[in-house]
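Dissemination and training. As part of the outreach component of the grant, students in the summer workshop were shown how a complex can be specified as a set of sequence lines and then modelled as a single object. The example used during the hands-on session is reproduced here so that future cohorts can follow it. Participants entered these lines:
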Amino acid sequence: MKETCDSFALEKGAHNIRRHIVKTIVNNGEGHGGPALSCADILSVLYLGVMQIDKNEPQARSNDKFILSAGHKCLALYGALVEKGIVDAEVLGTYNHLGSSVPGHPDASKLKGVEFSTGSLGHGLPLGCGYAVAAKMSGETYKTYVLMGDGEQGEGSNWEAAAFAAHNKLENLIAVIDENCLQINGRTDEICRPSSLEQRYAAFGWSVRAVDGHDVKALFEAFKAAPFDPGKPSVIIARTIKGKGLSFAEDNVKYHHWHPDEKEALQALREIEEMGKRWQQ
Amino acid sequence: MTARDPRKAFEETLLQMGKENDKIVAVSCDSASGGGMGSFFKAFPLRSVETGISEQNAVGICAGLSKQGFIPVIVVITPFLTMRAYEQIRDDIGYMNMNVKLVGSGGGLAYSTLGSTHEALEDIALMRTIPNMTILSPGDSYEVEQALKLAVNHIGPVYIRMPRQIRPFPADPEKRRIAIGRAEALKDGGDVAILTYGTMVEEAQKAAAELQKDGINAAVIDFITIKPLDESTLKEYAGKVKMLVTVEEHSVVNGFGSAVAQYIAPFIKAPPLYIMGVQEGAKTTGPYSEVLQSYGLTGKQIALNIRDLFQGGKP
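and obtained this result:
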């Protein structure tokens, strides 16, 4: 992990990830735009500022691990892998094409840098526990990061893993929840949100921190501080806005899976290019 | 060597393999003692993982361990492993081709007194559709030892369907040549071939002895590997007997019999194939031997059934 936060580089990275997301969807007609845009800052901070990954050997066992439990946010992961220099940007042109290495959910057998094929929710935290236990068994120092969605917290398997991680003191496991407060059918607090995620994870024995999920410095500092307490797994609740970066899509459930029409596509490209000017000087 | 409790055989073999291979990790869902991992847990606490009663989590943990080079062996009562965590097995183990050994404790009707929730009559159907999965179904303590050794030394996911009851060896262990993908003819015969595995081998042998009294010469083939299917042995017997019969302690839907049917169906000259097992939806509880009898799966019943089919020429 870098010692100090290079906010300019991380914000630029997040913007580039958003540009990859928008262009890929516009060029290919559809994709999980809202969820990917909401976690772009988190992925920029992880891949460009926090995780120790040998980009020439992304599968090396000593690398830090990243599991995208919410696999539908994969366009953000693909963008991060491009920005990290693990994957060529050209591959995004094949998104959703027959046999593509960048399908609508990440496939570990097709794309380097993807640890596990994900898509069905609630798989990532158990997998992360496996990595974290393996590190303890072999005395390795890599850390394991698992990115989940907030709607995904409805899956019971997460809570099996949450209990296990706390009981086994997996302080090398860091979960991040992209809490954008929306899921397919509406707002999470209208669908099933019996208590806050902070309360729930704390009750399971985790150390919890909530941060602005679009503030790269806050994210960086939180990751740098993990584990927050010795002997406890850490979870960062990243408060985000679904569709972040596109004015018409922000906090709008309609853009979970986005099929842009021509007008929207042009507007999206215009907004992204406009925003990009900030990093062009 | 004498036949003994299969769980004891499993436990001792796992412990021995653990001494020889420091990559083996035992994973328990509150099932270490019941599943034959107690000795391993005691000898290798640092390579033992207790997840509590949480099969989905446990299978995910196995995948993560495997990705880092460990060889997890997880033992859980069969339905809770193969059904509760089915999607984790498919996505995180099968499609990912992880080197994980899934052991279903008590296959078939083994927990016959415990009710329908504990019976496993669909596990083969579920596991055989999973890509990359090898399926081994030992029936006695020697086959259990061999299956565990083969599974751990095989690179890739393996499902072992564990027997629970003590059964005699169907053949002298020293003369056996058990290998993944290889069926063994325990008795040759030219009229009928009884294709079976695991817990039904003993009953199939009894059936063959009964049939002999009626002048029907039945072969008994032990398919300890259900996947990959030993197609050459199947082809050999399809070419030399007048009738094929599969017998299994499993639903007749999508089990071993269906796998055999899938292979045999295109052969124009293949003999008729009859699939014997537990009819879909059939459910009863009680002592093991009595439950077997209620499903028509004792040697004598299998023999009567085969004799009627063979002499009648049709079901």
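Residues 7-279 of chain A form a domain with the Rossmann fold fold (CATH 3.40.50.970). Students were then asked to discuss how this feature might be tested experimentally.
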